[in-house]
């Protein structure tokens, strides 16, 4: 049987169908094709003849794709609401990184007070801890979030615009975040907790923010765009245009296809 399932899978993903639904649908079609082939062999056809007959019963890639696409409830959230998945969600993820870092700093300060209201007696490792938390929330965690967004967008065959916006948000907002502790310069001075964004005045840690932003974008946005361009060319070669016959000319027996259920 001609391989109609690879171009069908790409067609469905590009149309915005959620990958889990695509996987189940294609698996059921493969099973259905195998059953038809077995029926043909049992009826006296050779295996190549039975495979060709099974392919003709399934129909064209376009027909098989439309049987799923017209069921709009199978679309992924990335296709239905890209502004939320690739706009709001990355911003919320970066904000969560800030929140975790601040909570950790405040937790250290509070836990090292000898009594309520007193100045904390900070351990020797406090400086290392604050530096580590700074790298986590402005470099490591944004890289993980950006990698997850890029993987999800590539898996769902998303158009390039919204995932690129998401990765820019993560790189610029995440890489320039500031949360640090400034120790008092006088014995009875107060510890200052500095929270901000390096790209606004007074540009705290601007050099580090620029480095983190560049690293995040180089390790997330650039690979994603490269993969998208490569996949786009592969898909154009693999996915036939609407109406191309890839499995036969007898149309699709849609009643015999076990469409998945929600």
Can you describe this structure in just a few lines?
The protein is mostly helical. The chain contains ten helices and two strands. It has a two-stranded antiparallel sheet.
pLDDT < 50 stretches: 241-262
Strand content: under 5%
Helix content, binned percent:
55-70%
Strand arrangement across the biggest beta sheet: 1-2
Q: Rg, please? A: 27 Å
How do the helices and strands follow one another from N- to C-terminus?
A: HHHHHHHHEEHH
- The residue-averaged pLDDT reads 83
Number of strands: 2
Secondary-structure class: mainly alpha
Q: Report the span from N to C terminus.
A: 29 Å
Taking the sheet with the most strands, its summary is: 2 strands, antiparallel
The coarse overall form would be elongated
Q: What is the subunit organization of this protein?
A: single chain
Give the count of helical stretches.
10
Write the layout of secondary structure elements.
Elements: H1 5-14, H2 19-42, H3 47-58, H4 61-69, H5 77-80, H6 82-111, H7 126-155, H8 161-175, E1 177-182, E2 192-197, H9 206-219, H10 221-238
